[in-house]
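We modelled the chain as a single entity of 240 amino acids. Its sequence is:
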Amino acid sequence: MRSFYIAEKITGAVTSISDAAQLHHLRDVLRLKAGDEVVIFDNEGTRYSCVIEKVDKKEAVMRIKSREAAPVRNLKLTIACSIPKQSRMDEIIDKLTQLGVDAIIPLVTERVIVKTQGSEQSRLERWRKIALTASEQSHRNLPPVVSSIRSLREVLAESKQYRLRLVPTLEGERKTLRQVFSDSLPSSILVLIGPEGDFTPPEISLALESGFIPVSLGDNVLRVETAAIAVVSYIKLAFE
């Protein structure tokens, strides 16, 4: 069943989609019409099973058949990921959304070299749209929060709110993810994903001073997007 996200709390027995992009997708791409059933998620993660009553050029009107409150989550997972070259951040946003990450922070570090078209705001809007589309396709209750581009120091300054902080790195004494999660499963985790060439030694020192645990993702050197997917997959598996 097709799903859509509405960025507001739904009240009453009827709701509608009027956003131009979503309406185009519903009407012209999926060719949904009156009588078809869809799933709607609101900004609180509540799931609504709906039947379409009307579709025109301005809106799609749906009657709510049933509703289901958002499930209680036992983990808040945030990934602060260094921005890779070309458009690979788009893929990272898409894949991490599908894997159920709660928040994604595009990260600039000393070794990040980014050549992108358009302003930072246009990139952020594109990334949030990718996250929204991936959320709808994977039937997530809520899309992840995609923050504005941050520096490493900014992320470290706000990191104490997380119960566990991890930094995969290629050098020095490190723990495996199995060792980290062998004793407990914390309620909130922040992971730093480094750029091509890894974090610089001074950056690693700053992370360790901020309470981050250095971890290994194996013997192979991974691309940024592979490292992000690998660490999230392991954490999700540990919590199942």
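As a brief sanity check on the tokenised model: The longest helix spans residues 120-137. The longest strand covers residues 47-55.
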